[in-house]
Request: fold
Amino acid sequence: MTTDTNPIPTSPRPIGYWLRVIDHRLDDRMRELFATEGITRRDWQRLNLIGGAVDDARLSERLAAGPEKVAPLVDRGWVDGDAGALTLTEAGEAARASLLERVSALRGEVAGAVSPEDFAITLASLEAIARTLGWTEDERMPRGRADYPSLAPRAL
Reply:
């Protein structure tokens, strides 16, 4: 009889594989969800920021520096005002509420894949792993390979 004394859990695929699969699948589902309204995930973030559901100084600064990014929302009649004082219109509030229902349903679907206890443990575990690898609360969300020099294509 052999016993495995390796304290590290093994799987046919490493954690990075599953993190990438989940990240890509979530992106795909969010893209589909927002495509029905003809907007992007960034537009959704802007709606939440302008509507006051999110308080993010960095995003607010970026929005003020690039008011053209709100043009699609203004054109739809969802946002009114200038870069210094943007507000959601009544139609914008209704669109945000409708989208929030669909986003919440997707979040529920994802969380419902496992028990509430397992989902809480998964989130806590991922946060603990991120912290062990150097992540801190004040770190911005990575946006691409440029944020990870080790993943950038290497010259041969």
